[in-house]
Amino acid sequence: MEDVALTLGAIAGHDPHDSTSFKAEIPDYRAELKKRRGPWKLGIPKEYFGAGLDPEIGAAVQAAVDYYRKLGCEIKEVSLPHTQYAIAAYYIIATAEASSNLARFDGIRYGHRSAQATDAVDIYFKSRAEGFGAEVKRRIILGTYVLSSGYYDAYYLRAQKVRTLIRQDFLDAYREVDALLTPPSPVPAFKIGEKSDPLAMYLLDIYTLGVNLAGLPGVSIPCGFTRGGLPIGLQIIGQPFQEANLLAIAQAYEQGHDWHTRHPLL
């Protein structure tokens, strides 16, 4: 966590050239790690521990929860009722933004320019065909569709409204707790190329998309291994602009577990 604090301190801060950058005072995250001590009130979202969660991951995360309880932290079950809509909302908003933002990579102003192009129109078609991978193209097509005439209100605008509801769920939970403890993924790590279905891959993001939609800080730290030696993570989701507190909560667990030297296959 000290490494994370150093890195965050280097990249955090307002960028006057970025309209989405928030102007706020940036603390010395590394120094804050030494100051902030628990116990904290930690929430367990019940929607993150239901059907579809691998039993080994559930057991490892529960053991981490028990460790925080031993440290004197108060553990409280909370609810994020709009979690089920997070994947649909995210992939509408994210693809729409990809379609809009990647329009500049046309081979003329930015990005790859095809050496095979013969005229101006060819530059657009071939540069984007060669320069973008399959997943990027997929998102551009989906995003263009949801932003098209007749579909903007039905998809993009509605997804933004759902995003607001998801954010409010988190803010409501933070009236009772300082941070949330969840799994970062419902299944263990899988081999490269093992899952080729894009929809199946999207569904694996269920526990992390809410963090992005709500604009919250989150961190995933090691909390064990499966019987097959695959790593299991613990996700900690903090309150808006409370990264220093989030890192301190994560460090409290890290200091009692040296997982990098305890891999079952080493």
Word description of this protein:
By secondary structure, this protein is of the alpha/beta class. The chain is 45% helix and 11% strand. It has helices spanning 2-11, 29-35, 55-70, 86-101, 120-131, 134-147, 152-173, 198-203, 209-214, 243-254, and strands spanning 41-45, 74-78, 179-182, 218-225, 231-238. It has a five-stranded mixed beta sheet. Strand 4 and strand 5 (231-238) form a beta hairpin. Helix 2 packs across helix 10 (243-254), helix 4 (86-101) crosses helix 6 (134-147) and helix 4 (86-101) crosses helix 7 (152-173). The longest helix has 22 residues, at 152-173. It is globular, with a radius of gyration of 21 Å. The two termini are 23 Å apart. The mean pLDDT is 91.
Concise summary:
The chain has 266 residues and is of the alpha/beta class. It is built from 10 helices and 5 strands, in the order H-H-E-H-E-H-H-H-H-E-H-H-E-E-H.
Notable characteristics:
266 residues; globular; alpha/beta; five-stranded mixed β-sheet
Written as H for each helix and E for each strand, in order along the chain, the element string is: HHEHEHHHHEHHEEH
Global outline: globular
Structural class: alpha/beta
Q: What is the average per-residue confidence, as pLDDT, rounded to a whole number?
A: 91
Task: List unreliable stretches of 5+ residues.
Answer: none
From the N-terminal CA to the C-terminal CA, the straight-line distance is 23 Å
The count of helical stretches stands at: 10
How many extended strands? 5
**Largest sheet geometry:** 5 strands, mixed
Proportion of strand residues: 5-15%
Please give the radius of gyration in angstroms: 21 Å
Strand numbers in spatial order across the main sheet: 2-1-3-5-4
